[in-house]
Amino acid sequence: MKTLEVDLGDRSYPIHIGTDLIDQAQLFSACEKATSIYIVSNTTVAPLYAERLTKTLEKLGKPVRTIVLPDGESYKDWKNLQLIFDDLLKYGADRQTMLVALGGGVIGDMTGFAAASFMRGIRFIQVPTTLLSQVDSSVGGKTGINHPLGKNMIGAFHQPVAVIADLNTLKTLPARELSAGLAEVVKHGAIADAEFLSWIEVNAKALLACDTAAMAHAVLRSCEIKSAVVSADEREGGIRATLNFGHTFGHAIEAGMGYGEWLHGEAVGCGMVMGADLSKRLNFITQDEVNRLTHIIQSMNLPITPPKFGAQRYMELMQVDKKTEGGQIRYVVLEKIGKAQIKSVPDAQVIETLTATGAV
Ligand SMILES: NC(=O)c1ccc[n+]([C@@H]2O[C@H](COP(=O)([O-])OP(=O)(O)OC[C@H]3O[C@@H](n4cnc5c(N)ncnc54)[C@H](O)[C@@H]3O)[C@@H](O)[C@H]2O)c1
Ligand SMILES: O=C(O)C(=O)C[C@@H](O)[C@H](O)[C@H](O)COP(=O)(O)O
Ligand SMILES: [Zn+2]
């Protein structure tokens, strides 16, 4: 097992990465002060892992309950968030209750937001079970739900007290979900570590085969990159926005298609192709580099052609992005492979990208 720390002063926490971690009660030591523990999971993940995790948590001598939500991005909303509060209140949760998010990014984001707001804030642990949640969403404390008009529009920054990433849970993950997770892995290389991007390129086959050693490296390096950025800029005043590479276009695809039609990772993969094209138009990277990144994304079995919503609809969907300031949409672009920056770009150049990539 490898452990790294997200360094945030008195809100610092460990990320544990290894195999069979959900059976190890000592990793959940933050629950020692808890009055009760609620696992929050969904109808797919709970039957696979909730019983094992319950046995582990019961060793800590606390009452353990499981709340099971419907599965899917389309349920990441107010109505289904309320189901968590309903059970917490029904069964007598209090301010010392610990929530444990068992699932992918949807469960992690919703459980985190429930923890941020229940009784004005309780603690929670992330047990991510998708590649995407292990390399990205379980770390950094962005929690929330979607609004029909925009992705993750309602939420809070609320850090977990621990992240426990059990690589063996990835063995039951469908191939399409694995590919979606690889999009965020590629993102970390593209924005912060050119050498890591080359490693991803060389190890694409092992990654797609869910080889444990390859997964361990992808999760560890991604968590190192993300935790360094989050430690430097927890609330996205500056550098944290670079973690949004591919997301201005990607979130527009997710909302425009209807949540759940394209997986988040698929939309981000395609969004990065568009972001790379935009970076080339700003004379930052070359067409060869755009082609290389596009090829890497395609080799992960991710779509590279966006839906044809037309320029006006894309601009409308992107306008609500959380990076927009004073009506100006700001895009994450690649200064070079391994380094990103955030920039306002004239609409005309963005429309050129939309046209060139097939969105118009
Ligand atoms: N908070 C953040 O920083 C952050 C970062 C990236 C993404 N996100 C959010 O995360 C969400 C996407 O997360 P995701 O890709 O994990 O999707 P997800 O949570 O919908 O999980 C994907 C699918 O895999 C299933 N699943 C989960 N673990 C499994 C396992 N071990 N075996 C079999 N099936 C399993 C789930 O039930 C679901 O059907 C989006 O809502 C996105 O906005 C948040
Ligand atoms: O942690 C971050 O910061 C990220 O941007 C990571 C993204 O991969 C993630 O999808 C995040 O939820 C997007 O944030 P948002 O603020 O654009 O909703
Ligand atoms: Zn993302």
TrEMBL record:
BP term (GO), one: amino acid biosynthetic process
Keywords: Amino-acid biosynthesis, Aromatic amino acid biosynthesis, Cobalt, Cytoplasm, Lyase, Metal-binding, NAD, Nucleotide-binding, Zinc
Keyword Iron listed: no
Domain 3-dehydroquinate synthase C-terminal: 181-324
Cofactors that this protein relies on: NAD(+); Co(2+); Zn(2+)
Pathway info: Metabolic intermediate biosynthesis; chorismate biosynthesis; chorismate from D-erythrose 4-phosphate and phosphoenolpyruvate: step 2/7
Known catalytic reactions: 7-phospho-2-dehydro-3-deoxy-D-arabino-heptonate = 3-dehydroquinate + phosphate
A GO CC term assigned to this protein in UniProt: cytoplasm
Binding residue positions for NAD(+): 71-76, 105-109, 129-130, 142, 151, 169-172
InterPro entries, per the entry: Dehydroquinate_synthase (IPR050071), DHQ_synth_AroB (IPR016037), DHQ_synth_fam (IPR030963), DHQS/DOIS_N (IPR030960), DHQS_C (IPR056179)
E.C. number(s) listed in UniProt: 4.2.3.4
Segments forming domain 3-dehydroquinate synthase N-terminal: 67-179
Residues annotated as transmembrane: none
Classification via CDD domains: DHQS
Signal sequence region: none
Subcellular location: Cytoplasm
Role: Catalyzes the conversion of 3-deoxy-D-arabino-heptulosonate 7-phosphate (DAHP) to dehydroquinate (DHQ).
Family affiliation: Belongs to the sugar phosphate cyclases superfamily. Dehydroquinate synthase family.
NCBIfam families for this protein: aroB
Entry protein name: 3-dehydroquinate synthase
Organism: Polynucleobacter duraquae
